[in-house]
Design brief:
The protein is mainly α and 317 residues long. The chain contains 12 helices and 2 strands, in the order ααααβαααααβααα.
Length: 317
Amino acid sequence: MSGFLTMGIVQTALELGMIYALVALSLFISFSILDICDLSTDGCYTLGCAVGAVVTIAGHPVLAIFAAMAAGVCSGFITAILQTKFGVQSILAGIIVNTGLYTVNLAVMGFSSNLSLFGSSTVFDLFKSLNPSKAWKSWSPLVLLVIILAVIVLAIYWFLGTRLGLSIRATGDSPAMVRASSINPAFTTIVGLCVANSLTGMAGCLIGQYNGNSDINLGTGMVTVALASLIIGEMFFKNRGMLMRIIGVIIGSVMYRFVMSVALRLKIPTEAFKLVSALIVAVALTAPQIRKLIALHAQKRASMRMSMEDETEGGDR
């Protein structure tokens, strides 16, 4: 481990995995629960970072997280309204919102493509100042992210178990059944997408404070990263209980970051990282079918072998 992946690389992979896990949890709600393909994730992620950066520079790093979440809610609300009230397909609605958010994000950052947080205190700085020890200063970002994720996981698990949460889950399974139960699927879709995008906004704010800057292209490809994390997690925990499925998404995000760290150590060009991400998604999506084909092939070979043995025994007799 020390020769190939240093402790610093492992720590960074864990920290980034925790932040990206929030986006993966957002897709878990929209894609896995609501069965909606929300392509506004890239723009919403950058929006959370931009709003968070502006509020952080103003001297309110904690408030910046809630402001970024509120911005994410607005993004999710517009996406949901386009789908439910105006009949726009989910993919097109996400593309429209994502395209519009590019200009909105530029406007939030004062029409600058980059905004630095140099000299501004972040939530990581505030948490780090709680203890002067060297070990604490080194590991405090990871501790803070674990605490935040633990709260988010418990909140999502509780929410999906409420009457409204169960209605949202039912909407993804069968909108017709929800209508028959006198529940408005448009309302549940709106609430679900607002909750999902609030997590994306929070992730954008945290990554901005973690990196110390906000960039207009920060969210490019984020939906692919989140989808890869989600699929990796669901490969191992899809048939488990809801809590394990949520935790599995986080594990998938961390595993994805470790794969990226390995790719970096193998000196794969950073320009090829998007291709690596796409390959991970493709492998994760096709893995169940590949396993079935391998099992079927093994079964056929076993049947042929048994048939040949029976024919040989019959010929001997």
